[in-house]
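ugh ok fine here u go
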Amino acid sequence: MSVRKRRSALISALVGIAAALFAQGALASVTPSLSLDQSAGTQAGATQNLGMDLQFQPAGTYPYTDTPDAMTINLPPGLLANAAINGGACLTTTDLTDTNCQVGTGVVTAYAAGLVPLPTDVTFDLVPPPAAGDLAGLAVNDDGTQIGSTADIRVRPSGDPEGVGISIEFILPNSLDGAPIDISEIDSTFDGLRYPTSCPSTPANVSVSVDSYSDSTVHTVTSPLSVTGCSKLPYAPKLSVKAVKDGADRQVAITTGVTQAADESPSKSLTLAFPGNTLGVNLSAIKLLCLNIANGCTPVGTATAVSPFYPKPLTANAYLTGTALGPSLTLVFPPPFPLTLVGSVTLTTKTASFTGLPDIPLTSLSLALNGGADGMFLTNCNPGNGTATGTSSDQNGDKTVSASVPYEISGCAASSYTSGSGTSSTDVAPTVSTPVASGIKTKHPSIKFRVKSAKKGAKVKQLTVELPHGLSFATHRTGKRTEIKGVKLSGAKVKSLTLSRGHLIIKLARPASSIGVTLAGSALNESAALIAKAKAGKAGRMRLTVISLDAKNKRHTIAKAIAL
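structure:
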């Protein structure tokens, strides 16, 4: 007879005896207690075992008349289980037959009919998430057979009263092999937990909340977790900054971030740097300002985080939040890491500063801001390179690192870089006359301006025209072709007219030194809001941006206020 069959027969016999000896009485609620065993070590950031002894009745209670039902173990922030063991396979396939996904061992003691203790050796195995949004599942394994249902392992979200960390939610069984049991104790050791990297003077607690089958009252017990040696942890994040200018406009796509070794302390505060001395703010991006992310705003970029404790990168949407005068970037990571990180944007220094970051080890964190018409930043490529500086502080708050890295904006011609006291004499920008607009109030807008090469500058071979907010370029269908009409030049001939990201690109048949440009009514569309503002005399300051490309492939950007 197998061990399980002998145990089932014993339970059945004990149930019969108990029924004869004890009359039905009032059931008592569980009264839990918790103690931790940290004999394996307390070093901050280290991976080590943690013992946890949970008792649900006072010593000497007899007979046991109640058993725990719903139980939640809340690990303090920074005390983390490794969900990347076995190459991440534990999160996709359940296998209780080997130790590949084993994350702990223990002894569960249950009383059959309140009379005789039945200690059972178990292992704790990482298994696939039982519910959407879970980080993983935890199975109580008795020699290849799961006891009870799979526990939910969840990451507490940003703003949770317990802090960002791991919670394990169990529903404990009250029967075994069809017979009632009362669980009195779970004495366990969890393997390979990564310890927090902050050492507060008052230790954080491991807490357990539990109710019982006879009483829904929730009892919570805690035990302090000792963490030492935070100042010994290495901390040397490395900053990186990349920028790529759009081919047809001035907007810039930016990627900024930090990398670290897996054994370093994570950052608690982090200032990500952008190429500050060459960037301007794209006012068109203000329309993407998100007042309520839950309403479905348009992201301005993405963030990607890589952790050695999770088998694949984590990706968040980045939203422009706050106000026009006090903007911020909000990074929203979806489950299983439901984190919301808010960084204040300083426009004068072109930085985004995040504070209160969770104690989760990351080998890289990067923020990529979109380019395009609604990109947050733009550049005139003067200069097209420079140095960006970012700062960060560790979780314990005793180390701060400031790093500077050189950058070069891809897409800016090398000759546009400022060197020494000025710009090369071979790179003199053309001039643009003040653009004159008419017909704004009458729904027939037109704009005229002239571009002239400088005396020492090369002739112009291409122009890109960016319209102010409220105006856009119109297209017309001729058969199966889409055409742009209403564009007239003097002093030069058109080779081609195309639209890119809403901007007009005029390629000339041959380079010219003076080009008059007229954008007639059929070339332009006008928004109703602009018409209304113009009629009320409140059109405000409108700017036209012209990007010239000369015969030596040098690019210049000139922005001019429009005369109405």
